[in-house]
């Protein structure tokens, strides 16, 4: 069964000026239900992740500032949000949704978090609309509970997964792979285990050729027992923040390459949706929904 964590409280926690790009968290499940691809049984609403789990990944002082809404103004601006109790609740629910998704992925092969992909959050900082790093928290949860011993994080959002890279820079059990725009946020990059920075305007053929030649090699060398996939659609040519030139079809083929590798190697995968900032919300929703459509076709 395709299991999907959804984001029921974003509308109450996100400032009005951020609602347009974030409204996808409500529209994606609505579209999937409308198409009949899923039913309500496929959706689950997670509780808040516990503090003890957060502290396996994030610095205690940083977490206390978030929890108590005392993060200094400069650091709040770096996140892109004004802190509120509901916003922190939402971040905690997103992280727990990814953890729950891992358990469903072990059972069904794949699971999704409609939110998540908060890869700019490092051990002791937040930025770029990311405060708690959901996939890093979930990866540490799996390791600390002996649910896996080898993890691959595939980050194909247009922005480098700098927070994820920093969190796992000394953790040999987690291999971080980020393929992203070279001249895009964050302008100070961290070092992933493998970074592939792409020039502005990278086309469908170039992008897919690089991924096709790289990903099977990583899996063969690292032999991961679990995969996290960040499937941002800000790689689209229509994206106002992206700087790459991928079509929706290429974005879909990108997802297919990842999923086919997971299936061929019998590796469970948790998917967080990441970014998407095309001016027409329909482009964002359709590209994200393609990821779900592919999963339904390939896994079930």
Automatic annotation (TrEMBL):
Ranges for domain Histone deacetylase come to: 18-283
Q: Which domain of life is it from?
A: Bacteria
**Pfam families assigned to the protein according to its UniProt record, in alphabetical order:** Hist_deacetyl
Q: Which UniProt keywords apply?
A: Hydrolase
What family does the entry list?
Belongs to the histone deacetylase family.
Name of this chain's protein: Histone deacetylase
Originating species:
Mucilaginibacter ximonensis
């Amino acid at each position: 069964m395709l299991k999907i964590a959804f984001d029921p409280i974003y509308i109450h926690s996100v400032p009005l000026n951020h609602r347009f790009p974030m409204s996808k968290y409500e529209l994606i499940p609505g579209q999937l239900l409308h198409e009949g691809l899923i039913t309500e049984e496929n959706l689950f609403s997670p509780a808040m992740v516990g503090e003890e789990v957060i502290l396996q990944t994030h610095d205690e002082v940083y977490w206390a500032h978030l929890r108590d809404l005392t993060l200094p103004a400069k650091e709040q601006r770096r996140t892109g949000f004004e802190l509120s109790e509901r916003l922190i609740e939402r971040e905690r629910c997103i992280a727990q949704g990814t953890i729950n998704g891992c358990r469903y992925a072990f059972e069904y092969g794949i699971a999704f978090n409609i939110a998540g992909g908060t890869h700019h959050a490092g051990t002791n900082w937040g930025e770029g609309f990311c405060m708690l790093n959901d996939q890093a928290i979930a990866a540490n949860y799996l390791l600390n509970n002996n649910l896996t011993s080898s993890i691959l994080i595939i980050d194909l959002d247009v922005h480098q997964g700098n927070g994820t890279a920093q969190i796992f820079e000394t953790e040999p059990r987690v291999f971080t792979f980020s393929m992203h725009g070279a001249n895009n946020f964050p302008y100070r990059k961290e070092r992933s285990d493998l970074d592939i920075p792409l020039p502005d305007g990278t086309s469908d053929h170039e992008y897919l050729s690089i991924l096709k030649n790289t990903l099977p090699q990583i899996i063969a060398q690292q032999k991961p027992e679990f995969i996290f996939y960040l499937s941002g659609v800000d790689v689209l040519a229509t994206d106002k923040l992206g700087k790459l030139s991928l079509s929706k079809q290429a974005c879909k083929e990108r997802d297919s390459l990842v999923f086919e590798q997971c299936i061929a190697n019998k590796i469970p995968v948790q998917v967080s949706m990441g970014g998407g900032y095309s001016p027409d919300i329909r482009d964002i929703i359709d590209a994200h929904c393609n990821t779900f459509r592919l999963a339904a076709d390939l896994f079930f």
